[in-house]
Amino acid sequence: MRNTQRILPALAACAAAGLLAIGVPSAQADSGSPGPTGIATPTVAAPRPTGVNPPAAGATTSSARTCGYRVVHVRRGSFLRVRSGPGLNRRPIARLRVADGRVYGSCAARHGWIAVKTPTGTSGWSFGYYLRRVSWR
Questions:
Q1: In three state form, how does the secondary structure of the chain look?
Q2: How confident is the model at residue 46 (pLDDT cuts 50, 70, 90)?
Q3: How remote is the C-alpha of 26 from its chain's centroid?
Q4: Distance between CA 92 and CA 126 in Å, rounded?
Q5: pLDDT of 20 over the 90 cut
Q6: Cα torsion at 12, 17, 19, 20 (round to 10°)?
Q7: Residues β-bridged to residue 112
Q8: pLDDT at 48 over 90
Q9: d(CA 27, CA 33)
Q10: pLDDT computed for residue 76 by the predictor
Q11: How are strands ordered across the β-sheet holding 113-117?
């Protein structure tokens, strides 16, 4: 009894804040009959976090944000490979040079690899160690 007196107010506060979802089997919820304890238990839908919208139909869950990068840690006259996928086992499809200036790509890295688009329009992946973020859009 003592534990119940401590737990019930906390559960009520969580339910009021939308942090607790209480459910009953659908047969009981539809009929409105009391539950096995003789007390009717309401069905509360799980709350959706505020400020979070589900992705649109057909949209990917990747970040829509684009960042600008410049190539770093590459010797003058050398280049950074852009690969077909994230990993050294993927084939090189393009090159980035320090002289290329700003390169745009994803703001999120995947295991250290960043999706980029070269100045010539080729899309691929480069290792994030060699890219320094300089802008967001």
A1: CHHHHHHHHHHHHHHHHCCCCCCCCHHHHHHCCCCCCCCCCCCCCCCCCCCCCCCCCCCCCCCCCEEEEEECCCCCCCCEEEECCCCCCCCEEEEECHHHCCEEEECCCECCEEEEECCCCCEEEEEHHHEEEEEEC
A2: very low
A3: 33
A4: 10
A5: no
A6: 30
A7: none
A8: no
A9: 9
A10: 84
A11: 92-96, 80-83, 123-127, 113-117, 103-106, 66-71, 131-136
- Residue that has been written with the tokens 């804040």 in this structure: 17
* Residue 26 φ/ψ, nearest 5 degrees: -60, -30
Q: Which residues make Cβ contacts (< 8 Å) with residue 122, sequence separation at least 6?
A: 82, 93, 94
Distance in angstroms (rounded) separating the CA atoms of residues 108 and 110: 7
Residue 11 pLDDT class (50, 70, 90 cuts): low
pTM > 0.70: yes or no: no
Radius of gyration of the chain (CA): 27
By residue count, the chain amounts to: 137
Reference 125, options 69, 73, 76, 74; nearest CA is 69
Nearest CA to 109 out of 122, 135, 128 is that of 128
Cα–Cα distance, 125 to 128 (Å, whole number): 9
Over range 105-120, report the average pLDDT.
93
